[in-house]
Amino acid sequence: MSADLWEAPLDDQPTTGPSTAGAERIVAASVMARPELIDELAGEFDPADIQNDQLRWVWFAVEEIRQTLTKGEIRWQAVDRQLQAWKASQYLPIVPLNHVALSVLYQEAQTGYSGVAYYAQQITEAGIARRYLALGVDINLRGRSAAFDPDTDIAAAQDVLDGLIRNDPANSPSLVRDIIGGALERAITPPTNADRIPTGFIDLDGLLTGGFAPGQLVVIGARPAIGKSTLGLGLARAAAITNKIPTLFESLEMGEDELANNILSAQARIPLHHIKQGIVSDADIARAARFVPDITAAPLHVNDASHLTLPMLRGRVRHLIRTAGLRLVIVDYLGLMQAPKAENRQAEVAALSRGLKLMAKEFGITVVILAQLNRGPEQRQDKKPTKSDLRESGAIEQDADIVILLHREDAYERDSPRAGEADFIVDKHRGGPTAIITVAFAGHYAQFVDMAQT
Question: What local confidence, expressed as pLDDT, does residue 310 receive?
């Protein structure tokens, strides 16, 4: 940054970066004409870099439509129908291009990969430039602040600068001679838990060698009202609030207010029904005040949108990885996600499950999905679930690295001698042992409690 720019008033400093309006139109038009470009550009182009909101949503519409299209072009009429459907459902946050504008845009399409890749590269570079300029403004603000701290502020700027350019691993195959050395090194080096995501349960972490690992798809299954949402939110709290691990909680069932109520109840151990009724005591309010700073400082991102598709989730994950270092995604729950269209529901869920596993592997994050079980447990004498009870598709069981099933005897027998206890049945653990972990269920505090700690 030049000395002139450094001394310029903040309002006079450029923040928009170079314009790529023409390139954005060509890319948006081209993916309509040849939607395969979305896959071909995937390793080097992020649609979040398209600055024009209307054109960016054209890309998202093609992504959505392409789930049901095996080959061929997607004409502008189909894109218009998708955008209007999103608009009617109030999902779309902008006024989309109308059918006339889309038809004009479609005429600018190019079908050759090299030409479109050239314009995509222009957009990517412009996106990097915008983030670079924004970083400059942020540095200027920090430097002018009386609270400037060289140790933290400079380190923060360096972290952002390092992340400006996304370096995806090459997709080319490796020769075995290049990877065998790593296997030998791992054979004599005990593993560490540095990359693991603790679950908040000592015995479960022990079974999983420290917690969930990057690239894993974890499925938590239960019948309704057993507590899968409570456990999912508990995992999010353990990761983000206790261990400061950037986490995304996608709630298709609970709204933001209910999520906040549950988080406050569990962290401060305030009865959930007292919060809902507005009758929390002064002593509980005082205790809550001690926990609120940790909650507000947590890198926990929550989204309560009622409509979620795999492309939408991928876009959100990609953005949060870039901006927040996202490591854990929890989806509550799989049955409410909109699956790609297929010949039947089983095939739809299979495609969704496979897409979530590939997302975990591609981005190097842990994806936890909550899932409902069928009525199989209720037809057994002991009511205990198995992984074959996962509803709608055996592909969920196949794709999952870990399957944890929830069981509470008191959900079926109120006077059970095990009232207040719950079992985490680890019914699948790829590359590791299975077991049953017993915990306590404190539904009035919206949490499962680790009995190993108590």
Answer: 82
Instruction: Note the pLDDT of residue 402.
Output: 93
How far, in Å, CA of 403 to CA of 432, rounded?
12
Dump pLDDT digits (tens) for 227-279: 889 999 999 999 999 999 999 999 888 888 888 888 888 888 888 888 888 88
Most confident listed range (165-174, 227-236, 318-327, 390-399): 227-236
Which sign, positive or negative, has the C-alpha torsion 436, 439, 441, 446?
negative
| pLDDT exceeds 90 at position 9 | no
pTM over 0.70: no
At 301, phi and psi to the nearest 5? -100, 125
